[in-house]
Structures are given as C-alpha cells and as structure tokens.
UniProtKB/TrEMBL annotation:
Domain named GAIN-B: residues: 246-383
Domain G-protein coupled receptors family 2 profile: 389-682
Keywords from the named record: Disulfide bond, Membrane, Transmembrane, Transmembrane helix
PROSITE patterns: G_PROTEIN_RECEP_F2_4, GAIN_B
A GO MF label: G protein-coupled receptor activity
Official protein name in the record: AGRG7 protein
Membrane topology, record value: Multi-pass membrane protein
Taxonomic source organism: Eudromia elegans (Elegant crested-tinamou)
Localization in the cell: Membrane
Transmembrane annotation, as ranges: 391-410, 422-444, 493-515, 527-551, 583-610, 631-650, 656-680
UniProt key word Disulfide bond: yes
Biological process (GO), any one: cell surface receptor signaling pathway
Domain of life: Eukaryota
Length: 744
C-alpha cells in the first residue's frame, strides 16, 4: 500500500508512536510520555457535619478530572450509594496537585437544587453550585434529563448580579458546564435540549464579559476596551506538552495588525472595533460542539469541533476574522472541505450567512457576526490504496491467461476424442477463470488512487483566498471519495466471474465423482444444460442479491472497497465486519464449495488414484510419480489451493505474510498449471506439436516389456507358457481421466 514512513519515536510509559509523535495514555503527557499526569490515591480527613470527622478515600485522579470518594451516602438518603465527596487534581507548573474535596449534601439532588436556586441568595449559592458540580462529576452517568436540569441551574446562577465576584460559585458552575460537555453524545440528540443549551450559551456570552475561568472543556477570557483600541485578538494555544488548555495559554492582545501566523496557536479570533466607549470584550472557547446540535450537519467521527464566541459591551465591531488550526489524525483522515459558520439562535442551527472562507496553513473565516463561530469540516478516510501490480504479478497472471487460452482452444479443436460434457466443463471453468484474470489485471486498481493516494492532504495542497470558493453549509463530517462507477462495475464482474469459477470447480468435482466412482451409471439426462444453468446462473443470483441489498446511490462503499475494486470487508474502524458482503456473499459460499470439493478429492484419491489393485500384473501398475501427478491435477482443477486464502485471515503479521506468498504463487498461476497438466501432457497435444514443429519431435523408442501368456484348459493338465516381447503404447485419454485412467 502507498504511504510514507514516519520517523521512529521512542515513547515511554506505554506511549504509542504515531506519525512520528508519541500518543500517550491519559496518565502521562509530554513529548515522550515522560511527565506524570495524575495524582496518586489519597486519604483526606474532613468534617462532614458538626463534630463528625470522616476519612475520605480517593483513587488515582487524572489531571483536570474529578474523582468520587469510596465513601458513599447512607442508603436512606436521597443520594444513596453516591460518593459523599469529590476531589480534583490540578497541575501547578509541572507538578500534579490534589485540591481540597467538595462535600455533597446527601439529601440533595439536581431536582431539589433546581427548585432552591430560583430563590437562593448570596449566602447559599456557593453550596448549590458545589453540590451541582458533585452530582454531575461522573459524565458517563448523565442523562438527557440531568443535563437539562444541571444546565438550568447553571443559567440561574450565572444570571445572578455580581456572580463573577464569587470565585468559588463561578468556578463550580464552570466545572459543571465542563462536565456536561463530557456527557455521552447520544444524550444530546434529543430535541428538547436545544432550548436549554441555547439559553446556556447565551448566558455564557454575557458572563464572559466579566470573568476569567478555565476548565478542561471550556475557557472564558475577558478584557477592558481602551479608547485607542482598534483591534482585539483572542488566541488559545493548546499545550502540547501537558495535553490540555491552560489559562496561561489564553491571551488577549490589543491593536494587532492581523491574525498571527504561529502554527502552534489552534484558535484565534480578531475583532475590528468601532465606536469604542470604554466597554469590555469577552470570549468563550468550547472544546467541543455538543451544546450546538445541528439538524443539518451530522457528525459521525470522534473528532471534536471547537466553537469560539466573542461578545462586546460598549462598542461595535466592523468585522471578525477567525483562524483555526485543526488537529486530527493525519494518518487516518484527509481534510476535504470546510465551512465557516456561526450559530443562529433564530433557527437554532449553523448558518453561513455573512461569512466567507479561505485556506492556507489555517482554516480562515471572515464574518459580520460576533458570536459562536465554528469551522465545520468534512473528512475522507485516508485509504491505503493498493500499489500497482508488480512485474511478477503481470508475468504470473499473463502466463495463466496464455495457458487458459491454449487449454480452451485445445479442448475445443480436439473435442471429438472425448465426451462433449467433459469438454464443456473444462472450457467453462477456463473461460470464467480467464475473464476473471483479464478483469483483475486491467481493473483491480482504483483510479481514485491517482488523486487521493498521496500522503499530502488536500488541506496542505490547496491554498484558497477569501471568497475563492462557495462557503456552503456542509451536511456531514465524513464523506466517501468521489464516486467511481468503473470501480464498482469491476467489483461486480470480479465477484461474478470468481464465484462462477468456484461453481465450475464444484461441477467438475461432481462430474469426476459420477465418472470415476459411479462409472457403471450414465450421466443424468440434459447434463450439459443442467450444469450450465447451475454454473452460470447461481453466481449471477448471488451477485444480484448482494448488489441489490448493499448498493445505494452515493454509498458504493457498502458493496465494494475503496482501496481496490473488490468486495467491502471492513467497518469504519477498519475491523473485519460480519455485516459486509465479503463474508456472506463470498467467503461463506466459497467455503462450502471448497468443503464439497475437498470431500470429493479425498474420495477420488483414496478410492481411485492410490488404491492398490492386486489383480493387475506388475507391469501395469502405475508409478509413484504418476499417482502424484494425478493427485496434483485433481487439486488444481478443483481449486483446493484456494483454502490457503482463509489462512491469510490469521491475525498475525508474519504468519499472514507467509500464507499470502503461498496463496499468490499457487493461485496466481492456476491457469498455467491447468494448461501444463491437462494440455501439455496430453499425447494428442504432443503429437500435434510434433507435426507442426518437427524440430520439437522426438523419435519414439519402443520399450519392450517382457510378458507371459498362460493357457489353461481342461484337456491339458500341464500349463503351457508362451513368452513374447511387446512394445509399450501410450493411449489417448480424455480430460477428466487423463491422469486417472491407469490408476483404476
């Protein structure tokens, strides 16, 4: 397959080298996964009520996460069996540090807190915010209802006057919002959440004018506007060493000339200020877009889309510029297109109105709006297209094609010397195999490989200025490669002719059984018509059903692969799928055919080829070599060697590679093997070649075999022996029994 080799990297602590960089487990960060990213298990003694001290036990905590205590609320409380406290691990410099635990009121739940927050005052708002944070600290357990309730609590708290001055309450609310963004994506699919999340994001914009708080999934930054401020630039740089956003990486700059070109900056937004009245500006950065559920743009990948929002109070903007530097797995995904959008609260969906896009090393946008910007991207899986066939493949398949043509012509022109059914069977087998080989060698490679097989992504290849292309709203983050009807047609034909080839091996197997093991019984009536309907009709039915069930307009990859023109076998995660047609429309039918052929092969070899007949005289017994050749001939014509293909499915690289070579050697030259065994070894073929090319003729040297003739009669009690010498003769044999007739 195509693809460049990334330089090796040496990762510590179970890190995995990918594209020349270490991908670390969550417990470790740093270029080589050498920095600790967790706080060890701990015990903290806390007063949970007046005069009652309790030891709270916490397991290892990842930096930026919360962990519940091993101690639970009493069974008779509202929060029975829920952790009585949570604790977080933060980083001070490079050192992970445990923070003081938050204690849960075991008799409070989200519903009770939601009813209290509406009438709460400054004295108890921190307790409500803290309890809400604790009750949402396990995102995997959050439901649509709990997300809705917690979001409403956060909205009510953030709308309280001067809430930004209560650092503890503000931090707890932001931690709650960050935890909601970690909830399962499926819980956000309900439409009744759209109004709640819209209210929350609007409130966050207002809150951002007066606060500076950073959590793992959300960051808020504010700054005052000076009279001489003409531009304001907000930038966020993800710390590649530590693996998450830090407040020191959020920066607001005034009067800058334009967007900065630092590739380490992942998100930046530039506001052009007009009518400045000493107001304030605020920014909100969301690490994913779960609060912005679109009805049009569907997300199928795990790639998170950041959303950045700006708000201004005491001034106006004449325009906004945004630049995103997306980070995604370049070894698996290829960026096809992007769209600059903002969240339209009127429709509760993304809109491209008033926005234009551009692309260089960044994905750039210009908009007339100031709120909730995002860049929607659509990716294509970076397929590892098959390399062009090697010369050895062309030679092997070319020889097979030549051998099959010679065999077919020989069988047709010498058909009078054998039964018509025998000629038809072998010619049909050779014809289906010939067409398969021709299509394989000329069409197996996908033509998309020429345009999309490069390691350089489209993102790196294209440079677009603003307005150079239409900024249209995308519908999905994953798209299939450009449709290639030719490749689909090739896959259909390969599917059909290879199934037909195996079907004809089974029919040859059945005929051998009838001719050799049931020799005294004639072939069934209309034998040729019957086998023709079976040999060509059943594969056509299988292919038609498979294509009809899996293929849809624009979804050709449900039927075929993209890497090369053959049946689909892998799912979106590149794992072998039981639902793909490769299994049930090819591997299973072929396995049944090979099993049938193998059973017939065993019967023939045991009962005919290798059977000892004591009634034969010594000079008529077959040589060991002839029996071996007869066995090989049956193996080839019945396709037994294709069983090696199933051994290639072994999930072990070295073993699979060995079987791949064996498979290619035996089956890539199957047509040549048939030609050698069933044509070149035929006495008729040798005779014809000698007649056409006398230079290749060999003088026949008779080999005289000593024989004895015994005469036994009632009138003679003595045995009369007549000894003679007779020359050996080679007789013409038909196709199926050419290597078997002298074995019976």
């Amino acid at each position: 397959t195509t693809g460049s080799v990334s330089p090796p990297c040496f990762c510590l602590n179970d890190g995995v080298c990918q594209d020349g960089a270490c991908v670390c487990p969550e417990e470790w960060v740093g270029p080589l996964c050498e920095l600790v990213n967790f706080c060890e298990a701990s015990v903290y003694t806390e007063s949970i009520s007046e005069g009652i001290l309790k030891n709270l036990t916490f397991q290892r905590i990842i930096v930026g996460r919360y962990s519940g205590s091993a101690e639970k609320c009493e069974p008779d409380t509202v929060n029975a069996n829920r952790s009585i406290a949570i604790r977080t691990c933060t980083r001070v410099g490079k050192t992970p540090t445990l923070q003081r635990p938050h204690i849960l009121n075991c008799n409070e739940n989200l519903d009770s807190l939601a009813s209290q927050v509406e009438t709460a005052d400054v004295s108890n708002i921190s307790a409500i915010a803290s309890n809400t944070q604790i009750l949402t600290s396990i995102p995997g357990q959050l439901t649509t209802q709990s997300i809705s309730t917690a979001a409403n609590i956060a909205v009510n708290i953030l709308r309280m006057p001067n809430i930004s001055t209560d650092f503890q309450a503000s931090t707890s609310v932001m931690a709650t919002v960050s935890q909601l963004l970690d909830a399962n994506q499926t819980e956000f699919n309900h439409n009744n959440l759209s109004d709640v999340t819209a209210s929350l994001t609007k409130t966050m914009e207002e809150f951002s004018l007066t606060s500076n708080i950073t959590q793992s999934n959300i960051a808020i930054q504010s700054a005052p506007l000076k009279l001489n401020s003409s531009t304001i630039l907000f930038s966020a740089q993800k710390d590649t060493e530590l693996g998450y956003l830090l407040s020191t990486k959020l920066e607001v700059q005034e009067n800058v000339a334009g967007l900065i070109e630092d590739l380490s900056t992942e998100v930046q937004i530039l506001l052009s200020i007009m009518n400045n009245n000493n107001g304030r500006v605020g920014f909100v950065l969301y690490q994913n877009s779960k609060f912005f559920k679109s009805r049009i743009y569907k997300s199928h990948s795990s790639f998170s889309k950041r959303v950045v929002s700006s708000s201004i109070d005491g001034g106006r903007t004449s325009g906004v510029e945004i630049a995103f530097s997306p980070k995604y797995n370049t070894s698996e995904l290829q960026l096809r297109d992007h769209a600059c959008v903002f969240w339209d609260y009127a429709t509760n969906d993304w809109s491209t109105v008033g926005c234009t896009k551009g692309r260089d090393q960044f994905l750039r946008c210009k908009c007339n709006h100031t709120t909730n910007f995002a860049v929607l991207m659509t990716f294509q899986i970076k397929y590892k297209y098959a390399k062009p066939l090697e010369y050895i493949s062309y030679i092997g398949i070319g020889l097979s094609i030549a051998g099959l043509v010679i065999t077919m012509l020989f069988q047709i022109f010498t058909r009078k010397t054998r039964k018509s059914s025998i000629t038809w069977m072998l010619v049909s087998l050779c014809f289906s195999m010939l067409i398969f080989n021709i299509i394989f060698i000329s069409g197996i490679e996908n033509r998309n490989a020429r345009n999309y097989g490069s390691d350089t992504t489209i993102h790196e290849q294209q440079h677009q200025t603003y307005g150079a292309t239409n900024n249209t709203l995308l519908t999905s983050d994953l798209v299939d490669p450009p449709a290639d009807p030719w490749c689909t047609a090739v896959a259909v034909l390969l599917h059909y002719f290879l199934l037909a080839t195996f079907m004809w091996t089974a029919l040859n197997s059945a005929q051998l059984y009838l001719l050799l093991l049931r020799a005294m019984q004639p072939l069934p009536g209309h034998f040729i018509v019957t086998v023709s309907v079976i040999g060509w009709g059943i594969p056509a039915m299988v292919v038609a059903i498979t294509f009809g069930v899996t293929y849809r307009e624009g979804k050709a990859l449900n039927y075929r692969q993209e890497e090369f023109c053959w049946l689909a076998a892998l799912d979106e995660n590149r794992n072998f799928s039981m639902e793909k047609p490769m299994l049930w429309s090819f591997l299973l039918p072929v396995a049944l055919i090979l099993l049938f052929n193998f059973i017939i092969f065993i019967n023939i070899t045991v009962s005919v080829i290798w059977r000892d007949n004591k009634n034969l005289t010594r000079n008529k017994k077959d040589s060991f070599m002839k029996r071996v050749i007869g066995t090989i001939a049956i193996v080839v014509v019945l396709g037994i060697t294709w069983t090696v293909g199933y051994l290639m499915l072994i999930n072990q690289e070295e073993t699979s590679l060995i079987f791949s070579y064996v498979f290619c050697i035996f089956n890539g030259t199957q047509g040549l093997q048939i030609c050698i065994l069933y044509t070149f070894r035929s006495p008729i073929f040798k005779k014809k070649v000698s007649e056409v090319f006398p230079v290749f003729s060999m003088p026949e040297i008779p080999v005289y075999l000593h024989s004895k003739i015994y005469y036994v009669s009632k009138s003679h009690l003595a045995k009369h022996v007549k000894e003679t010498f007779r020359p050996s003769r080679t007789t013409s044999e038909d196709m199926s029994s050419s290597t078997l007739s002298n074995c019976s």
